[in-house]
Amino acid sequence: MIGSSFVVRTADDETTAVACTELWVAAVAARDGQPPSDAVRERARDKFAADRVALVVADAGPRPDGTRDGTAPVAGFVLVSAPGTGGGPASDAAYLSLLAVAPHAQGHGLGRRLLAAAVEAAAAAGHDRCELHALDDNAPAVALYRSAGFAPVGPPFPHPLSGRPTRVWRTGPEPVR
């Protein structure tokens, strides 16, 4: 499957939010080599309950015959929350709360497309800066964020669930002081 066969769109329905939550749980389990976690699921549900700026999702696009692949309702997503919903130091940047790409959709540039669409959606909602939290040892994610223009900000802090070193990454102009 090539990257252009995905349709990136915004969504706001509960069914899509539930599918994204389950994709997040599966992605974290795969990343960490652990079984799916109810704690991860509950934390994701809390993030979906926060003040939302946008939910950007990728669906499998139409096949050449015009039909769609119904096996994976969401191939990837980014949840963009309001400033201040990420915890940590106060910030006026939109918070890219969750980003996941299904295993079958990885390696085709979809994460980059989703990230760019999330930053665009945040800008359209009036947020010229975005930030996210990334585990320092998640090399693929860190490489994606760096290549998309995000830069690390401040010292690492322990992840709330795993305790692993985590860092804030930010893009956009620095605020005028």
Describe the structure.
The chain has helices at about 15-30, 40-50, 110-125, 140-145; strands at about 5-10, 50-60, 75-80, 95-100, 130-135, 150-160, 165-170. With about 180 residues, it is an alpha+beta fold. The protein has a seven-stranded mixed β-sheet with strand order 1-2-3-4-5-7-6, sandwiched between helices. Helix 1 packs across helix 2. The model has no long low-confidence stretch (mean pLDDT about 85).
In brief, what are we looking at here?
The chain is α+β, with helices and mostly antiparallel strands. It has helices at 14-32, 38-49, 110-124, 139-147, and strands at residues 6-10, 52-60, 76-81, 94-101, 130-135, 151-158, 165-171.
| Mean pLDDT score | 87
Poorly predicted sequence stretches spanning 5 or more consecutive residues? none
Biggest sheet, open or closed, and with what strands and sense?
7 strands, mixed
Please tally the β strands and state the result.
7
Task: Note the total helix count.
Answer: 4
Globular, elongated, flat, extended or rod-shaped: what is the shape?
globular
Strand content: 25-35%
Helix/strand class: alpha+beta
The gyration radius over C-alpha positions equals: 16 Å
Our measurement of the CA-to-CA distance between the termini, rounded to an integer number of angstroms, reads: 47 Å
